[in-house]
Amino acid sequence: MTATTWRRGTSRKPVPQHEDPGPVAASSSVDDRVHPHRRPGRWVAAAVVLVLVAQFVNALVTNPFFQWDRFAYWFLQPVILKGLLVTLEVAALSAVAGLVGGVLLAAMRLSRNAVLQTVSWCYIWFFRSIPLIVLLLFLYNFGALYRTLSLGVPFGPEFVHFDEASLAGPLLLAVVGLSLNEAAFAAEVVRGGVLSVDTGQTEAAAALGVPKSYEFRRIVLPQALRSIVPTYVNQLIGLLKSTSLVYYVSLLDLFGAVETVGSTYNGDIVPLLLVATVWYVLLTSALSVVQFYVERFYARGAVRSLPPTPLQRVRSALAGRRLQKAGAR
């Protein structure tokens, strides 16, 4: 059977089309293999990026100014590892104290009490506005303003007195300063996570007569954690890097140890800075891995399929190559 169509334009004569070859002839003329669409632009861009990366690595390795032999010497020295432990200690204590303070501030901000809301808002506004280095230096000189601290009745008698200089050492000052700053940011993370829960669910729970505490524990909190935890882990990466500022309150963390050793060995300042850089990269990379798996864990039920892990991506790539080779044969 011959089909005819009309061409647009000058001719109005019907144009005959070829007859349908039938399913058997069509299947024999079409290649059974599925070929992926070729994208030469991507290959060109990838080649340019690889050349730039290779040039950067070559400049990094072949430049004698970096003194990689001195880098290897200093990388595991006890003074460096001691500073690394101080960094981890300050970061861990500040993370816990900052999270506790952030939860309290978020609860105050979400409260219907105007006084609590105002106090929480002022705290967050104030400490988010101050640079962390200014806050640490202010705390470092706090003893000049208040030489003694006391416990007692507000505006009344005092029962116990403390000498501020003997009570607040460099470690405590660093933890307090980082915690005050961290609590302001953590409060907004927690508050944002709670507000991300659909209000229709809480209204439905209230309509069913679900108690408030049960509603928060079983409905609001699990969904809020899906937003809070990944964001707060990202916040921890910023906190870890901020610990380098505690050197200015006379605490020898990783950066402080590098600076102190570098002042003695002036010729090794560059390899020492590389040592600090590599250690910070390793620590933040470990936190990034934790962040990936935390996000993946809390993504369950929210997405159709979980993002693949790096190992799963490698397996998938290898399986794809095996299928391509089998098809080529």
From TrEMBL:
Molecular-function GO term, any one: transmembrane transporter activity
Region spans: Disordered: 1-35
One Gene Ontology term from the biological process aspect of the record: amino acid transport
Cross-referenced CDD domains: TM_PBP2
Highest taxon of source: Bacteria
Keyword set includes Methyltransferase: no
Entry keyword annotation includes Transmembrane: yes
Transmembrane segments: 43-66, 86-110, 122-146, 269-294
Keywords, comma-separated and alphabetical: Amino-acid transport, Cell membrane, Membrane, Transmembrane, Transmembrane helix, Transport
UniProt topology in membrane: Multi-pass membrane protein
UniProt xrefs under PANTHER family: L-CYSTINE TRANSPORT SYSTEM PERMEASE PROTEIN TCYL, MEMBRANE COMPONENT OF AMINO ACID ABC TRANSPORTER
Record family assignment: Belongs to the binding-protein-dependent transport system permease family.
Protein name: Polar amino acid transport system permease protein
